[in-house]
Amino acid sequence: MRRSLALTLLLGLALGQGFLGVNFWRESPPGEVVQRLVPLSPWVRWGGAYREEALYTRFDLLWFRDFLKASQARGAWVQLSFRQTLARPDRLHSQLEGITLLTPRALSLGHEPDWAAEHGLLNLDPLGYAQAWRNLALTIRLLAARGLIPRLPLYGPSLSQIQRWDWLEAFLAANRDLVEGVDLHYFPFQRVGLRTSPDFLLAEPERLRGLLREARARIRRAAGRDLPLYIGAFNLSRDPADEGPYGPNSPWAALWLGLTLGVFLEEGVRGAFYWSLYDDGALSLVSGGGRVRPAYYALLFFRDAEPSPRTCHTGGLRGYALRGGWVFLNPNPRPQKVRGCPVPPLEAPAWGLVRYEPQRAEAFRFAPGMEAPAVTRIKP
Q1: Which region holds residue 279: left if phi is over 0, alpha if psi is between -120 and 50, else beta?
Q2: Residue ranges of the domains in the chain?
């Protein structure tokens, strides 16, 4: 992943407020890009590797406030720089005062400490990081107890992959009484674009299901209780140069994304944040001119999803009930009719997605080879 001022757009973190998200790493995106977010009504998580390199300025916070308004976001989830706060503890109070002007839903402390340690940017091992995080969190709690800042939920440890078990378990053992949400990242491949078949795309979501179940079990053992799980950044690949027929900006990525979101939902993930919005090569969701990549349509189809939805898996299809209707995914080489589900007659395209909205009596279909979703009227 490139250096990143990751503004992570959370499309909801709590029941009734949505589930999906998307990151971006540049300030002041073009208006055409911002407008692509309006249909999603997102929550925003501000953070990323670049955000670790500097403390916030007043300009940063004013710009971010304007961004929230322009994108019609629900609100903010903000990251406090872990490394810079350790270096300048005298700035912690003023940083938090500025951040709370945004009325953030939650506060993340740092970003991918395991990655930073491996690249020489953070001189801490898992145990040292866990204790340093605890010291910072206790200071923040003390400021809130004295009435100097509002109390904010604290999330961590924002690891670079789900399966960094040594970092996760050390963190939870030290901070089980302070952390209120677990944030992990997920990038299953490094380079995928030039592979010769989509088989790996279709197999990966079930491997992910196993990782999520193991993560939940380890969280329960290490913390002594269940904690909300968030996927703070994810994509098919971590490489912005990963072009090709099966890469993150290909039509196949929309099917992979839909299947992945379905697994997140079924496994009770509370929020999932796609990487990234724009100006990040093959990982971009939208071009600088506002043209969307295929993955955008998968996010749009799932925009009103909630964790642990009602499902209807039938005939090789995966079906999920949303607030505004249903989404069906077809990981098969032929179109499939939806049978045995509480919807009118529908057909999912080969390797594609279909969203049915009963209030509009319309179905939206998207699959490889299509530039945009096709819309058809559906008789109730």
Answers
A1: left
A2: 6-301, 318-377
Minimal CA–CA distance to 236: which of 270, 203, 212? Answer: 203
How far apart CA 276 and CA 66 sit, in angstroms, is: 20
Q: Tell me the whole-structure pTM to 2 decimals.
A: 0.93
Is the separation of the CB atoms in 266 and 277 below 8 Å? no
Please give the order of strands across the beta sheet that includes 353-357: 318-322, 325-329, 353-357, 362-366, 374-377
Q: How far is 103 from 100, CA to CA, in rounded Å?
A: 5
Q: Count of alpha carbons within 13 Å of 329, Cβ hemisphere only?
A: 25
In our burial notation (b when 16+ CB lie closer than 10 A, e otherwise), range 255-294 reads bbbbbbbbbbbbbebbbbbbbbbbbbebbbbbbeeeebbb
- For residue 286 the two structure tokens come to 């939208």
What's the helix, strand, coil split of the chain in %, to 5?
35, 20, 45
Per-residue pLDDT tens digits for 284-318: 999 878 999 999 999 999 999 989 999 999 989 99
| CATH T-level assignment (fold) for domain 6-301 | TIM Barrel (3.20.20)
CA distances for 275 relative to 27, 130, 231, 251, 372, angstroms: 15, 26, 11, 16, 21
Q: Which two tokens stand for residue 280?
A: 């990040």
| Per-residue model confidence (pLDDT) at position 194 | 76
Q: Which helix (H) or strand (E) holds 36?
A: none
Distance CA 104, CA 45 (A): 9
For 47-87, write each residue's pLDDT tens digit.
778 788 889 998 888 888 888 888 887 778 888 999 999 99
